[in-house]
Structures are given as structure tokens and as C-alpha cells.
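Troubleshooting entry. Yesterday's outputs looked truncated, so today I'm pasting the complete records for two proteins to confirm everything comes through intact. If either block looks cut off, that's the bug. Protein one:
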Amino acid sequence: MERSEASDEQLALQAGRGDPLAFRELVERHKSYIFTLLIQLIGHRETAEDLAQEVFLKLYRSLPQFRAEAKFTTWLYRIAANTAVDYKRANSRNPLLKLLRLGRDPTAMPTANPVDEDPERSAVAKEAQALMQRLVGGLPDKYKLILFLYHYRQLSVQEIAAIAGLPVKTVETRLYRGRALLRDRWKEANPHEFQAGFE
């Protein structure tokens, strides 16, 4: 079986046995998403790049313990989420970090393609997408990760619970409260054109 046809779990097991090409394939498959996730959680491109390298270093070191008892992506996403949490905890009192977070990249989160080719409607849609990204980025961390994984990666509540290390009920509660908070902030930003995009 060619590596391009192998599952993530198969590649992870091979990489855990010392196959460098299998590890390289895993990195190629997942580096874009891991970077996107980190920039959404951290809010700064250069820091996200550094942390992405750290995530894959941690992955490399821990692959010998991987037994394919859970999905590889669940395992990898949890490493990434924990790396972001550890970074923010270590830098929570650093005022420079807070300033850097203000410079969020509006292209950080994957977005849908415009529904038509009308330039005016396309521009309005892009503005709305950028605003939604900023609003999600401004939510408390406990909501941000869950909303991102649920709405932009279409992961199930059970998968998110495994990644975040939380009970399913807690994830459901945070998803509900995070969406409610996001709707309120969206309404404040668009008082004349309120649309609950997370219904």
C-alpha cells in the first residue's frame, strides 16, 4: 500500500516504529490545519508557526506510544490544543502578548466560498466572514476551541470532548453558551441586519 493510500492511523504506527517517510506524510497531511487551529487560538501568525513546529515535535516524540485505540486526528488535535493552552498560561502576564493578540489575521479561519459571482454580494459576504472570525477570536478560550472545532472542522461533540479532555455534557454546555454569546456579539455588531448564523 502506498503512503498516500494509507490511513493516518497506519502511518502513525509506521512512524512510531521509526519510519521517517511515514512521519513526513503525516506532517504534510495535517500541517495546514494545525497552523489554522493554532492561529485561531493564539491570534498571532509567527507564534502559531513556532507552536506548530512544537506540536509536531511533541507528536514525533510520542508516536511510539500510539496504539491506534483512538483516531489519530483526535490525538493530534489534543496535542495542539494543549500546546496552545500551555503557551497562553505561560504568557498570560506578558503585556506584549496581549498587544500581539490585537493583530489578528482575518484569514485565519477557513471560510465558505461566495454563493454567487456578484462582486457586491461577495464583498459583503467577505466582510461578514471577517467579522465572524474576529468575534469568535474574541470569545473566552473555553468557548473558542469548541466553536472552532464544531463549526469549522465539523467534529462531533464526542470528538471534541476527547480532544479537549472534557466530559461530553461540558462540551455541549459550552457549545450552547458560546453560540449564545456569539449571537449576542454579532447582534451588537449588526444591529440592523441581525442574522443568527449559528442556528
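Protein two, checking that the full record survives here as well:
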Amino acid sequence: MFLVLMGTVVIAGIVGYLSEKSGFTQNGYLSSIIICVGGAFLFFFMRLMFGWGFGSPGMNAIVSSVGALIIVPFHWRK
């Protein structure tokens, strides 16, 4: 379980970096990575507690990271 958690963090960090590098977001590298890791943590623990998921832990990390990148910046923008 610990290795799955560390893999989730690594995948979320890569997704955050690549989304900023490709121009998908304009948040800054560090904030995009933090948003992705936070979303991946949240979804990891939801899967652990309730069993919700998209199959593999890697797919869960990617989907939750992209979802957090879409939801969080638009929520705080006025």
C-alpha cells in the first residue's frame, strides 16, 4: 500500500508538470504540482475507504490529478 501511495504522488507530480509545460494550465509549476498531488491524495484515500476507482491505481492518479487541475483553479477564479 505504501508503494502505491508513493507511485500516486510521483504520477500526480508528473501530470502537474506536464500540464504546465504543455500550456494546459497557467498556474505555475509548483502550484500545479501541489494541486495534482492534493487531488491524487484525496482520491487515493477515497478509494481506500470506499472502494471507488477507475481500475488501476495509476489510472486513478492520472484522472484525479487532471480533475483537480480543472476544478480547483476555476473554483477560486472570479
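Both blocks look complete. Sanity check on protein two: The chain has a mean pLDDT of 91.
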